[in-house]
Amino acid sequence: MTASNTPHDESTYRPGGPPPRGAHPEGLLDGHLDSTAQLMNRITSQLGSQLSLVSLNGTRRPAPPALVLVAHGSRDPRTLATVRSLVERVRELRPHLPVRLGHIELNEPLLPDTLAALSAGDAVLVPLLLSRGYHVKQDIPEAVAAAPHLRARVAAPLGPHPLLAETLYARLVEAGWRTRTSEAARRASGVVLAAAGSRDPDSAVDTRRTAHLLAERLGVPVVPAYASAASPTVPAAVRALTARGRHRIAVASYFTAPGRFATQCAEAAPWIAAGPLGDHPAMARLVLHRYDQAVAASGTVTERALTPA
Fold it and tell me: What pTM does this model have?
């Protein structure tokens, strides 16, 4: 909305009458158009949501499986706020889709409570985790087994996937990574991909694949490093890149949200440190992509959203 630089009382304005003293007619018109556009967007979204549940012959389609986003949980309040923001982005992309949130630990609602609150039917659990590991292989399937009223399927973790590489790239650019650099600058640059770490070897394989995708996107070496349970550490990875003649070293935060590990890794950056993946639009699209993959694999019939994932 375009605001006037001159204070005025909008409550005295009557449609069809003169604008308040000091008000700009153009500003009032812009504000009217903005509010009308917002209203039309809401109406279109709601209409699309309703139409997606009706088939061509007028009968109502089965409700789509519920999407349950499974977050790890954290004592850092920023983590919960970020996850909730990502949930809202997913809902905006698929207004007709029932979306729920459950945590493995530390935050409410806990995953067993979320599953218990769902009505009997189909559900797809999408882990907000970046690689295979204990939570994906043990914790989440155990929670599903304890909810026999659901026909639930666990989707693949978010990583590795090109959309993650795009999000990491965007966060690096936000932190100061130049999109256009000379060949000499590229030869002096490198990135440490800082991840949480896991003792599961599959987790390291997945993180290395993401590092490879990001290296292809940036055109510089990307070395995976870990905050715990695996090696190398971020400082060790920085030293390894420095030994290779790379002196402009950035840290890419391979974390879904802010937290203790993400902060520790960022503090070890000798140059710039990117923010976590967070609620970037590509993350919401990736969540829905994993959901769609799981739905297709289960053979459940449901209508895709009007906005593609």
Answer: 0.78
